[in-house]
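In practice, a research group might receive sequence data for several interacting partners and want a quick structural hypothesis before committing to experiments. The following worked case mirrors that situation: the sequences arrive first, and a predicted assembly follows.
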Amino acid sequence: MALIVHKYGGTSMGSAERIRNVAKRVAKWARAGHQMVVVPSAMSGETNRLLGLAKELAPSRTSDAYHRELDMLAATGEQASSALLAIALQAEGMASVSYAGWQVPIRTDNSYTKARIESIEDTRVRADLDAGRVVIVTGFQGVDAEGNITTLGRGGSDTSAVAVAAALKASECLIYTDVDGVYTTDPRVVPEARRLHTISFEEMLEMASMGSKVLQIRSVEFAGKYKVPLRVLSSFTAWDIDIKEEAKSGTLITFEEDEHMEQAIVSGIAFNRDEAKISVLGVPDTPGIAYQILGAVADANIDVDVIIQNVSKDGKTDFSFTVNRGDYARAIEILKERVIPKLGAHEVTGDAKICKVSIVGIGMRSHVGIASKMFRCLSEEGINIQMISTSEIKTSVVIDEKYMELAVRALHKAFDLEQVPA
Amino acid sequence: MALIVHKYGGTSMGSAERIRNVAKRVAKWARAGHQMVVVPSAMSGETNRLLGLAKELAPSRTSDAYHRELDMLAATGEQASSALLAIALQAEGMASVSYAGWQVPIRTDNSYTKARIESIEDTRVRADLDAGRVVIVTGFQGVDAEGNITTLGRGGSDTSAVAVAAALKASECLIYTDVDGVYTTDPRVVPEARRLHTISFEEMLEMASMGSKVLQIRSVEFAGKYKVPLRVLSSFTAWDIDIKEEAKSGTLITFEEDEHMEQAIVSGIAFNRDEAKISVLGVPDTPGIAYQILGAVADANIDVDVIIQNVSKDGKTDFSFTVNRGDYARAIEILKERVIPKLGAHEVTGDAKICKVSIVGIGMRSHVGIASKMFRCLSEEGINIQMISTSEIKTSVVIDEKYMELAVRALHKAFDLEQVPA
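A structural hypothesis for the assembly, expressed as tokens:
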């Protein structure tokens, strides 16, 4: 008998019929002798419906008081789906109880709309499990020290599930989603893309951060920190498939290097067209420059991804970085209004029509020449590289958006990703 | 400067546009110098939508565990509408914060789906009011001693509003609804029905319990117990009508006899066609009979309204009572299975096609002959009376359902209710 956490996305919870299927699947696992905790997302469309109403009422608010209310509002979606799942399980003959984040409680900081989990109390959930109940815990939300409801940001239910699994020392956390695992790259771009049976935690982190959107990145960080075995698998299989087969399906995210059975140097190609590039030209090359530029941007709560500073010439340097495309106009405005006048920099330029393509692989640590192979492949396709950024297990390039699919396909082929590694 | 509680029904909260109008109205009251607490219902249709999903998943469950989940589910409707109203108020430039029942907290017993309020903590709300914020408190819900969400039953938001007003010692509790006050009877049945400017608490209790549906009966009981001045008024007036005019509109429910300015003997005609009549015939006339019959019915959570036991003949008596029509079949079944065999009663008969018509008036206390005037009026219309029940300020008759409108119209005329009393 193991303690297992299941997480179901909004599509899996999208109607009474689908909730009933989730209940049947969970009941199957419980009847196989497992202690079951389930973390559901809101029914698909529900969060957007609620936030749409808020936007209709207050098109452009940003205050803390406003964000507090957004969290009160959005948290209802998961509370409703959790209660419905508990009801569906009861109808299947399984004792079941649902808890909102504040009831567990899942304690967070007070950063409304993007709170971070600080601790999870396991007493109440454990008592229910020991009493033979399936426990449903609302995803996406928690409670701060003053008793205000907080939410964890989009996709936060993944993080909730992993955090609950960590707190309960669960044997495995299964993330049921609308894809059947993690692929070498997006199969819509490269039809030959192959599902990985395992991927290392660090690789998954790089893939997730590039917008592969299979898992919220913070859930992967959490899983890494607490060594929660995490499996991504499809919620579209029949609920009554053989449980042993189901337990091996999808992609397992591993934490031990020796579990990493596939010895590929590069595991996957990630890409992201949601970014924009900004350059501040002719910046005086003095200490504290990076902070002066990025501090103003960070103060406006704009995330910065790739950052590049070239060597200086005549005491001046060029400073470039990428931001989410949605923040592009605001970042440019902040720089022009607050940074340029103080710095005496020449000018701010930018380009919203770029994309980022990355090769990701834990094998890169011990293999040289991987980056240059990437650059040669792109060069052979006539693709100009605008920015380069590297980490131990990733090499990213920023290129013109129009070359994205071409670059991804060429790299997938160059690194033989359609082949199962020997 | 007064502390005022507003309560808005689901229709008033039915869309973003309507929520904005509520916010403008509340902001007007706040700008006039009042400390404002607002209790909204869920957006119209929302509670039915949620409970419909539950019913789809579990058509016929009745366990405590199930009712607990129904409350988790239904409570989300008010949490969402409360957050939306806070957002709308912020957009109007008013500082505002919303609290779910458990955050106030509003403590209740643990009778899921029909919990009773035990206490309300006022510290948090008062601190916000003193800081100049409009406070939104979710209607309809509270939290039990174990931290489970409870709901107060249909229409429970009225009770929430009155209870909050009592806890805060508010100057007045204004119930905004889709009617503009309490009428001498339903204007759809009697076009000459007249709006009452004031009605006594006791009369209102009798009117509400008869299904006039203007206010949940428990809210009136609560208002009576804590002497909360309660006003029922229309939410369909323009939000910017003169506040002095608005403050005098609708119907005020009074608690002091000397406030009762309208000296009519009968204030209104109430009626209810949601009942059914059951008779147990040939019951041995021994002590404890009423309990043996009604105890079994009450154990099944069926409310009993009118109860009549005739004088006995040959040691046998007939025992009649009315129940909600929805409980009729189940009540008959319980009697046939559990009561008749034990009692040795002859038979159970019933009639679901009945209605109850009542005349209500505090003036009846000091005037004789009111009941007989009622019976004469019905007799002149050829309406047979099946059951009679009286209280200090009410006389009710059970008659054939088909005569309901005729009886109401005749009585309204007989007691001169279309005339403003001298």
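Before designing any experiment, note the following. Chain A has a mean pLDDT of 90. Chain A touches chain B through 42 residues (CB under 8 Å).
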